[in-house]
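Hey Z.,

So I finally got round to the nicotinamide-adenine-dinucleotide thing we talked about over coffee. Here's the setup:
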Amino acid sequence: MVRIGVLGCGRIGRMHAANIAAHPEARLAMVYDVDAGAAAEVGAAFGAEVAGSAEAVFASGAVDAVLVATATPTHADYIEMAVAAGKPVLCEKPIDLSLARVEACARAIAGKGVPVQLGFNRRFDPGHRAAREAVARGEIGDLHQVVITSRDPGMPPRSYYEVAGGLFRDMTIHDFDLARFMLGDEPVEVVAMGGRLIDPGLMEELGDHDTAMILLRTADGKQCHINNSRTAVYGYDQRVECLGTKGMVQSQNRRAHEMVRSTATATGIAEPALFFFIERYAEAFRAEIDAFLRVVRDGGEPEVGFEDGRRALVLAEAAYLSLAEGRVVKVSEVG
Ligand SMILES: NC(=O)c1ccc[n+]([C@@H]2O[C@H](COP(=O)([O-])OP(=O)(O)OC[C@H]3O[C@@H](n4cnc5c(N)ncnc54)[C@H](O)[C@@H]3O)[C@@H](O)[C@H]2O)c1
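And the result:
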């Protein structure tokens, strides 16, 4: 049994805690949150010890590895503390909103040999992964284009935007990682268009965007298009399409069930897409815990690690530069 300490008992921390507690090869040993009530609730729900501080989790002999699901500005500090304590860490995205802080963290943990896995759960989605594997096996010939559609079901509250760090660093960061995964290659050029179509007043006031289209290109010319919206009324819209010389693969939306209704006025009426990330990516979140447990037990590099988190943030910064200057940006201009 791998004994795991979870830091952060909010929206996603609770879900991870539940997945760890239900896992046959893991035990939720300890939880911590600055909100003592949230930690007490999760600790009681899953029979885990409630730590009095983050330091207590990292120092505990009863914890083999940690999962960080706290607010974004704490991630880099907690990664450094976990690595210093020799505890493998699975940290939610993004590593930090500042590339300089991410690079300082990279220097602090370099050469310590402690695995750091990043919470890019979409790589573990069965459909997305099957699409990537089909591409890698050459089933669609030479890959030319990847299209990633990633739309949230609805706008989060204002308080969310105030700390999220902007659409590209908070939301598109998943798609930048997925683009690298699906392309099997590094984008070298980025061009981005951002929009304020859903709540123009709020987005203008906060300097954020609720709508975006981004194009990426690899050195050998493969193209990727990412489209984001903070509101898709039909549910969490998560689709990936890859086009190659011998065909196409698509990873589709998931629904509660696959019953399709046809009537006198319409055909093919299906359930809405599953509501949001916890439902849509349930299997992916469980599979990322499986992958983390393998790394903790057997060692080796995580399937998706710190450098993937850094590279996704570099693409986000390149997209912001493109937006600011209205031009195609070379990724090498940013980092
Ligand atoms: N992989 C995904 O799809 C996904 C989805 C949602 C959120 N996230 C990421 O997970 C993180 C948490 O998001 P959330 O939606 O659960 O937020 P949340 O606000 O619901 O929860 C964050 C929790 O962290 C706690 N916290 C804040 N500072 C802390 C500290 N210094 N030490 C311990 N606890 C602290 C808060 O009290 C809160 O309970 C964010 O970084 C977010 O980007 C990832």
